[in-house]
């Protein structure tokens, strides 16, 4: 007669998470953090701290609305003969030319003869699409790009992708806040830069994938309903 089976024998404890797995996770996070930090420093190195007039003239000038003094600076470049025509891209659909005219009383004649308004663009990608259409209609092969210094890297990526055959000359507008205090001493400016850096990285990834034939987000899908009316021109870039 066989002996009864005794299941009271102590069982081996469940295997604990292996130390190497934890090390891989921690190491990966550390690499990602260092990579992001290095990338952010590289992004900051592209931002100009002072406004520098373009070294050469161009066929046209495009200003991307959304920041203070962008349009007035672009008008000064047009008045100085840096371009033949100016495109103000991202004007809110409810804003008339008279709204811009009132804010730029010294440039009435230029507004009437040499300025085009784009009311279709609602973000930087559609700014690039509308600028491409405008430049092709006029046969322009070079453009001065006017936007805020923190927005310029992303704008150049989008515009270069949309118009690889057009020479782009950046004119970065530097806001008063940027001049008055270091960016790292202002929480609002730091948040703005981190947000812009994240958008810049996303655009770089999308554009690089598109260059090898992987279209992550078709251009038309980024069109959105325009935001509520804002003063003067309206677009958040």
Oligomer status? single chain
Give the class from helix and strand content and strand pairing. alpha/beta
**Strand order, biggest sheet?**
3-2-1-4-5
Radius of gyration, whole Å = 26 Å
Strand content: 5-15%
The pLDDT mean sits at 83
**CATH topology type of the domain at 60-222:** Rossmann fold
| Secondary structure: number of strands | 5
Taking pLDDT < 50 over at least 5 consecutive residues as the criterion, the unreliable ranges are 221-236
Shape: globular
The percent of residues in helical segments reads: 40-55%
Number of helices: 8
CATH class of the domain at 60-222: Alpha Beta
Between the first and last Cα atoms, what is the distance in angstroms? 86 Å
**Could you spell the SSE succession in H and E letters?**
HEHEHHEHEHEHH
What is the name of the CATH architecture of the domain at 60-222? 3-Layer(aba) Sandwich
Major sheet: size, sense and barrel closure? Answer: 5 strands, parallel
């Amino acid at each position: 007669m066989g002996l009864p089976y005794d299941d009271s024998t102590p069982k081996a404890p469940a295997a604990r998470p292996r130390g190497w797995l934890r090390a891989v996770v921690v190491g990966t996070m550390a690499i990602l953090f260092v990579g992001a930090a290095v990338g952010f420093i590289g992004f900051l190195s592209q931002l100009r701290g002072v406004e520098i007039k373009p070294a050469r003239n161009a066929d046209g000038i495009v200003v991307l609305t959304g920041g203070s003094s962008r349009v007035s600076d672009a008008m000064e470049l047009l008045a100085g003969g840096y371009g033949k025509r100016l495109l103000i891209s991202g004007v809110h659909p409810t804003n008339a030319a008279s709204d811009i005219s009132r804010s730029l009383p010294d440039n009435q004649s230029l507004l009437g003869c040499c300025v085009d308004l784009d009311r279709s663009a609602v973000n930087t990608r559609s700014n690039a699409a509308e600028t491409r259409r405008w430049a092709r209609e006029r046969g322009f092969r070079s453009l001065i790009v006017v936007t805020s210094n923190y927005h310029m890297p992303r704008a150049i990526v989008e515009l270069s992708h949309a118009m690889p055959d057009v020479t782009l000359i950046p004119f970065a507008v530097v806001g008063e806040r940027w001049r008055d205090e270091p960016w790292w001493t202002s929480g609002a400016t730091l948040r703005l830069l981190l947000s812009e850096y994240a958008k810049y990285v996303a655009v770089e990834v999308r554009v690089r994938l598109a260059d090898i034939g992987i279209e992550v987000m078709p251009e038309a899908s980024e069109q959105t309903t325009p935001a509520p009316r804002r003063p003067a021109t309206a677009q958040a870039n």
